[in-house]
Amino acid sequence: GENVEQHPSTLSVQEGDSAVIKCTYSDSASNYFPWYKQELGKRPQLIIDIRSNVGEKKDQRIAVTLNKTAKHFSLHITETQPEDSAVYFCAASRRGGTSYGKLTFGQGTILTVHP
Amino acid sequence: DTAVSQTPKYLVTQMGNDKSIKCEQNLGHDTMYWYKQDSKKFLKIMFSYNNKELIINETVPNRFSPKSPDKAHLNLHINSLELGDSAVYFCASSRGGSGANVLTFGAGSRLTVL
Fold this sequence. Notes:
The complex is a heterodimer. By secondary structure, chain A is mainly beta.
């Protein structure tokens, strides 16, 4: 089955700095890679996703890059703000068959942005 | 209106008891899921149902029995609760087709087994 490794487990930055979180996956058939943000005591919420036919996607201060050959993808947050502090999860999945809609999550990264 | 709602939000119970968590979605999605988040925050799929049919069962002990009376509801019943069942259980839903992987999560149900 799919295995997703996420690093670092904790990340501390100063407000205004950039933050980068990296994930690797094992299943070359995976073709969908979302990122979820989970604030303390809240539900995970999708912040950005990328499909395997795209190498990079950007939405305001967040961007995701995908390297299919190396089987890794990264989340980049620029100009971080204290409200970006949360746990971030990467995930991987493939469509179809018995894996329909199944997300395999990374272990999570606790991001702390200091004012 | 809450898109994916689950009850109860908190559940404290003794070992050996049986408990249920209910989930409802009003998004018109075809697929619903149960995910478990343990004390280390690790999120892992337990079950998924598509139009009331079981699609994924991730080697979960048979003490856990999901039930989907219709595609808007997915309940989770747990028999003979154990200490290790303490976790936050998240219900989620997604639509079919190209959106099958895009999950909307409920607020979670924190289960504590004493």
